[in-house]
Amino acid sequence: MEPYELTASEAARSIRDGRLTSEALVRSCLERIEARDPEIRAWIHVDPALALAAARDADKRLAGNPSAVGPLHGVPFGVKDVIDTADLPTTHNSPIFQGHRPSRDAACVAIARSAGGILLGKTDTVEFASGGRKAATRNPVNTDHTPGGSSSGSGAAVGDRHVPLAFGTQTGGSHIRPASFNGIYGFKPTWGAVSREGVKHYAVSLDTIGWYGRSVADLALMAEAFRLEGMGETAPVPLAGLRVGVCRSPVWSSIEPAGEAALHLAALRLEAAGASVEPFELPADFSTLAEVQDVIRRGEGRAAFLDLYLGDRHRLHEELADHCEHNRGITARSLTEAYDVAGQCRARFAGLFERIDVILTPSAPGEAPKGLHTTGDHIFNGIWTVLHAPCLAMPCTHGPQGLPVGVQLVAPRFADARLLAMAGAMAAAVA
């Protein structure tokens, strides 16, 4: 097995045990990028010399003090190009920010580095992770199809084994959906659990930083680096008797046959493995949350892009400029009403878990759509995003076109460690 094929958790363990060096791993990943990225186009900026120098330094530090290394020691990671990095450009896939060099790392990058991670490069994104220009990235399973978005490059880079870990962001479904389309694992923590300092805002009350890996253990490794509450203290969860609520959600009319088949198959596999599986419905007053998420996203988007609209209108994409012009008629009143509905539903959400432990629901309508003009529909993600709930995407099956289709697990706010533990028990049955 080539080093680039290792999952993040396997690589971290091999480095700590002395069976692999960080330099060998980074070099293998760079060779994989050189071979595959001309076709996949997941990366905007990669600096091989910088990454290799950091890897060599990591190897020296491990040799000098093996007991002091962090959970990500020597493991390379990618960063979505709306997240600031001090030694690589942050362009937001926008003509306004070409060549932009931030003065310091975003908080999430700084934390990953302090845990021993090696910054490998910047991955392509939809413009400002919001709209306008699409990423040039292609789906590695079938390059005629989208990898999803807006975390397009991060999802494809992990899916095509260019890098074992990568950061993405989610305001609607920009992180969970690409995980499904690329056949990988993705974790969107509880809103506010991970600092968004140094990341371009779209909707401040929705924007969340997450990460991709190729196993639940990979996701947990990064969660450990971020010291999410309960990490290292939560006991393993037995699958037998785990109460799983299968939620078609209020937007079920948007499901496609492949998405419905994946949800049904995951439920059957879990039940066969000993879990207690039952249908689960959200209360009637949750039925408008998809529209609520859209109103909040666009309402806050006006504030997020107003400075660029006023100062650089001729280079701001029409789709983004519209937030500052018509914005679909969203008013202060409609935004206030949306905030109120979201707040009321969030307050009730944890109480819905009296009879279940975790929600099983679609992560996308179905397979990745054909073409790069679209990143797919976030309809099955927006509800959970507006609820601020932690979400975990898990591979499940393939659709009729041979493309991956995953499912999504959802837990109450700040039950991140518990969700990762439950996903660890469920993964072998579902994937």
Automatic annotation (TrEMBL):
This chain belongs to which protein, by name? Answer: Amidase
InterPro entries (UniProt xref)? Amidase, Amidase_dom, AS_sf
Q: Which residues form the Amidase domain?
A: 25-420
Chain segments carrying region Disordered = 130-159
Where does this protein come from, organism-wise?
Azospirillum doebereinerae
- GO MF annotation, one: catalytic activity
